[in-house]
Amino acid sequence: MTTPLDAYWMPFTANRQFKSAPRLVSKAQGMHFTTPEGRQVLDGVAGLWCVNAGHARPRIVQAIQAQAAELDFAPPFQMAHPKVFELAERLVKLTPPGLDKVFFTNSGSESVETALKMALAYHRVRGEGQRTRLIGRERGYHGVNFGGISVGGMVANRKMFGPMLGGVDHLRHTHDPARNAFTRGQPEHGAELADDLERLVALHDASTIAAVIVEPLAGSTGVLVPPKGYLQRLRSICDRHGILLIFDEVITGFGRLGAPFAANHLGVTPDLMTVAKGLTNGCVPMGAVFAQRFIHDAFMNGPEHLIEFFHGYTYSGHPLACAAALATLDTYAEEGLLTRASDMAATFESAVHTLAGLPNVVDVRNMGLVGGIELAPIPGEPGKRAFQVFLDCWEHGVLVRNTGDTIALSPPLIIEQHHIEQIIGTLAQAITRAA
Q: In 71-174, which residue ranges form alpha helices assigned H by DSSP?
């Protein structure tokens, strides 16, 4: 029986093109999806940057099933259930020292909204309510809610939705192909781009700025790897001016770069850190914000019976999500997946950079188990060449992701060398055919 396609308005999708030639998956196991026709497709993007431990892991499946039968829902306002506290304690053992408070959300977008509100409210409760300005970065992606698209810097996500939040400004992005094209790992050039924050401080005055939010590694804009020293310099400038630093680790969290978080890997600790995706291995929607203790403690004043922070979601710390997250952390720990990307990074890097000499490849970027292959656009048709490569790879049994004219790779952390060879071989043929 053919599935009717008309009623569903698909997210971030060329709906008419898709419905003319649907790409459906009906099963998943390990490194592969299976289509309704029984064709296997190797997952080169961990679902959507999220299935870090691979698909249908038994421990996670069983935990969700058992939790649904035991406690399907618990009210999160003025109530709780044991697993949400257990999960929070487990998580703060993975974060850099100081990030030891956790607020649960349901997605990366909600995590960003929560972190922005925390930053604004923090300054208010400590008597600096004039600090209302938020600083994002060009080419940043911070989800799709109004706060996220306001601090974000991807034009297609912003142009249709009006004037955004007021009081937002943006740092320059870090992409510098003239100096850094085809760099393996972190680029040598660009740490000085963090000094753009000093320009915004001079323009607005530091006393008006609440927070700066950046992705340590920018994913959805086309895999922009941070220059050496850039995040360290940004941290220093924020400290000098009393500005909170927020890392959006929705993509980089839970082992993507070879450590639990990019903050661990790069040795820079933010004041707030947003996560989602790999938190539950993509099985149940869940996000979180990690906060430095001093931020949390600033709210813990006044009468004890009053709510300190007027924010939260019906499904914050949902029992099924907590069960999935705990089982995911167990799976990561048992198989060493939070550091496995460091073991596979050199093999992955070498393979990805073999694409450098192919037609229309203008840059290759990588870090940990993330790769970006930037293609020259077809004149007058931006994004079309990468979309053609995406479709070609799908037809030949590999799922990659196209974003603009860049092909992004972020495979499950269980990947083996033969999977890397299949992904890169299939991609090389597709790029050649798209020339």
A: 82-92, 108-125, 146-151
